[in-house]
Automatic annotation (TrEMBL):
<dbReference type="InterPro" id="IPR000524">
    <property type="entry name" value="Tscrpt_reg_HTH_GntR"/>
</dbReference>
<dbReference type="GO" id="GO:0003677">
    <property type="term" value="F:DNA binding"/>
</dbReference>
<dbReference type="GO" id="GO:0003700">
    <property type="term" value="F:DNA-binding transcription factor activity"/>
</dbReference>
<dbReference type="Pfam" id="PF00392">
    <property type="entry name" value="GntR"/>
</dbReference>
<dbReference type="InterPro" id="IPR015421">
    <property type="entry name" value="PyrdxlP-dep_Trfase_major"/>
</dbReference>
<comment type="similarity">
    <text>In the C-terminal section; belongs to the class-I pyridoxal-phosphate-dependent aminotransferase family.</text>
</comment>
<protein>
    <submittedName>
        <fullName>DNA-binding transcriptional regulator, MocR family, contains an aminotransferase domain</fullName>
    </submittedName>
</protein>
<dbReference type="InterPro" id="IPR015422">
    <property type="entry name" value="PyrdxlP-dep_Trfase_small"/>
</dbReference>
<dbReference type="InterPro" id="IPR015424">
    <property type="entry name" value="PyrdxlP-dep_Trfase"/>
</dbReference>
<comment type="similarity">
    <text>Belongs to the class-I pyridoxal-phosphate-dependent aminotransferase family.</text>
</comment>
<keyword id="KW-0238">DNA-binding</keyword>
<keyword id="KW-0663">Pyridoxal phosphate</keyword>
<keyword id="KW-0032">Aminotransferase</keyword>
<dbReference type="InterPro" id="IPR036388">
    <property type="entry name" value="WH-like_DNA-bd_sf"/>
</dbReference>
<dbReference type="InterPro" id="IPR004839">
    <property type="entry name" value="Aminotransferase_I/II_large"/>
</dbReference>
<dbReference type="Pfam" id="PF00155">
    <property type="entry name" value="Aminotran_1_2"/>
</dbReference>
<keyword id="KW-0804">Transcription</keyword>
Length: 472
């Protein structure tokens, strides 16, 4: 797959891929009736193909009366055939599979596990769930004998709508929420629904590595947007929205993975304004909101959205029960009906037992007590990791929440060699290139302080630092 999103090894002829590209944009009303289309030369340069390939695609579209020709003027969209997003019936699924590089690291057993952005299982409410399983079956005796609805359990969606409204001013109804099996499934469903081959997608740099793999699998052209301690360069974001007309911007603005940065309130408002101005969906992934060590983070971007261009993913897996895999996708009705379709094709509904078990805990008074204990425990572990790092010349910004440190090592350290030697010593971490859509973060690593206990964390960090110093 070349950078344009066209595949020379694809089973479909190249001119048909160009045809699909043009027709998809017409269907989504990016080019509307009587709009002039790019010239053969311009489109050939944009897609990095021969002019004859573009000419053949245009000819087929003309033969099908989807476009028409004006002598000595060019190609134009035929009237009466463009369709807005609301009228699309089915998503287009990518035709090739992308490897998940992070999963390859996770497959290697490690005693000192710094690659898992998960919370230590011994910090989770295991006893509560084990004691109350029978109560779940008493309350819902047929819970194993039926499927959930595709959109998710109504009782759970009602509770979440009330929670989001009261706590974050999101003003949602239960109909605006769909339950997924974790946030990664939510990202995958949204990619299948919104992104077609050769669509442009903005991704933060660095970002959640699974999101990179998912959007690449859809054949997207990825444009990186750097994230900084102060947020984004909004002039750069606006330039990209103008120039590339991205389908969406996937972002994690609250205790960002992997940096821990928090995008300030004013930028959140401005991002929503830009999204509405340039018709770019913002897919806001928010898995770490409750894991803060100081003050509460700003409200989600969704709180500032008035025109439906923000889709909000809220995962509860990280800090309640990863094994239940519960996340909520919040969006407006124009998108929900399409999300409903792709969810039905994926699994026909998140397991009902998982939803009811989560609901029982979510409504209990113990949840807030559990979160407060987690905040304290994780802040202690972060401090231990930073204490070990303080004896090095490595650099990082200390986050005020989340599960990770984003650390820069000296350029002279060969990262592939450090990873290999670390794995030999049962130490695991995430190389920065896995989190970088451009694969340029060669001197960075992500270290998660959340998964192993304090003693192993201190020991493992000493071992990792010693290995790195041997490579200098």
């Amino acid at each position: 797959m070349d950078p344009t999103g066209l595949s020379r090894s694809h089973g479909k002829p190249l001119f048909k891929q160009v045809y699909d590209y043009i027709w998809n944009r017409i269907q989504r009303a990016e080019w509307t009736e009587h709009d002039k289309l790019p010239s053969v030369r311009v489109l050939a340069e944009e897609l990095n193909v021969n002019r004859l390939t573009v000419f053949k695609a245009y000819q087929q579209l003309k033969d099908e009366k989807k476009i028409y020709v004006k002598d000595k003027s060019g190609y134009y969209v035929h009237p009466g055939i463009s369709m807005p997003f609301d009228d699309l019936d089915y998503p287009i699924v990518s035709s090739y599979v992308q490897k998940s590089h992070l999963s390859e690291i996770h497959r290697v057993p490690a005693a000192y596990q710094f690659s898992y952005a998960l919370i230590d299982p011994y910090l989770m409410p295991n006893r509560y769930f084990s004691e109350y399983v029978k109560e779940i079956f008493d309350l819902y005796p047929t819970v194993l004998s039926t499927y959930s609805t595709i959109q998710g359990d109504e009782e759970l969606r009602e509770s979440l709508a009330l929670f989001f409204t009261n706590k974050h001013r999101l003003h949602l109804s239960q109909d605006d929420i769909l339950i997924t099996s974790g946030s990664q499934q939510a990202i995958d469903l949204l990619a299948r629904m919104l992104v077609q081959p050769m669509d442009t997608v903005l991704l933060e740099r660095p970002t959640y590595s699974a999101a990179i793999d998912i959007f690449r699998q859809q054949g997207a052209q990825i444009i990186p947007v750097d994230i900084h301690p102060y947020g984004y360069d909004l002039e750069q974001v606006e330039l990209y929205m103008k120039q590339y007309k991205p389908r969406l911007f996937y972002l994690n603005p609250t205790f960002h993975n992997p940096t821990g940065y928090v995008v300030p309130t004013e930028q959140r408002k401005q991002l929503v304004e830009l999204a509405e101005r340039y018709h770019c969906f913002l897919v806001e992934d928010d898995p770490f909101r409750e894991i803060y060590f100081d003050q509460k983070p700003p409200p989600p971007l969704f709180a500032y959205s008035t025109e439906g261009y923000v889709v909000y993913i809220r995962s509860f897996s990280k800090y309640v029960a990863p094994g239940l895999r519960i996340a909520a996708v919040c969006c407006r009705p124009s998108l929900m009906k399409h999300l409903f379709t792709v969810k039905s094709l994926a699994d026909n509904g998140t397991p009902l037992l998982n939803q009811k078990m989560f609901l029982h805990y979510f409504k209990s008074k113990r949840l807030q007590q559990h979160i407060m204990k987690l905040q304290t425990a994780l802040n202690i572990r972060k401090s231990i990791m930073e204490k070990e790092l303080s004896r090095t010349n490595w650099t990082w910004d200390s986050p005020t929440g989340g599960l990770n440190l984003w650390v820069q090592l000296p350029d002279s350290i060969a990262m592939d060699m450090l990873l290999a030697k670390s794995l030999e010593q049962s130490i695991s971490f995430v190389p920065g290139t896995i989190c970088d859509p451009s694969k340029e973060a060669t001197s960075w690593i992500r270290l998660s302080y959340s998964y192993i206990n304090e003693q192993k964390l201190s020991t493992g960090m000493k071992m990792l630092i010693d290995l790195a110093e041997q490579l200098l």
